[in-house]
Model the fold of this input.
Amino acid sequence: METILQAILLGIVEGLTEFLPISSTGHLIVVGDLIGFHNDGRVFEIAIQLGAILAVVVEYRRKFTDVALGMFNNEKSQRFILNLFIAFLPAAIMGLLFISIIKTYLFNAISVATMLILGGLVILWAERRKHQVRVTDVDEMTWKDALKVGLFQVVSMVPGTSRSGATIIGGLFIGLDRKVAAEFSFFLAVPTMFAATFYDVYKHRDLLHASDFPMFAAGFITAFFSAWLAVRTLVRFVANHTYEVFAWYRIAFGLVILITAYTGVLTWSH
Done:
């Protein structure tokens, strides 16, 4: 029962943080440390992200349906699919090459804290820059725009960086408006996290057992519903606000982790 409750808590954390620029993986690592939840290969943390991604599919079901129906005869749909594929490729390639190294050396609270602080500073700097908006609709993006966003996504492979943060802020840098940057980040999450989840589960299939199913199901379901809430809220929020509040949260949270680790108040993974 304790493990199920831990899975539910981690599912809520995953769902609420996956699409905010504060690093869902980083929060899962830190919260997992706090509640004493550990699993071989970190498969659980990756697998429940699928629940959060399905929330995007449900929220934008009309867009995905239109794209699916027009993939063979609609130029706009074909361009959208091509852009997603191009943006997906850099992280897919780098993930295949380096994910084992990253999980071995960087899936720890101290690395997360460091990247939370650095990422927060980058967001503050980005928000103080003057951005020249070129693209005001996702369907106006070119393949070059998609590739640039995909390269920004590679940075987010380091826990604590934030996939949504890297792609949204990267989108602002290249001329996407706030809503377009956020929505393309959501759309890009679908192929990226589907691929990451199935690859990781397959790679560590020997570590999985039928008895783990209730734990994974609990995390998956809670991640779905909390992510659905987060996506709907964030789209409305970014229309009228900057990301500075998330930057200050990242910096404060990262400092708390480092200070408690340095003073010995809490023992974090290294």
About this structure: The chain has a mean pLDDT of 89. The radius of gyration is 18 Å.
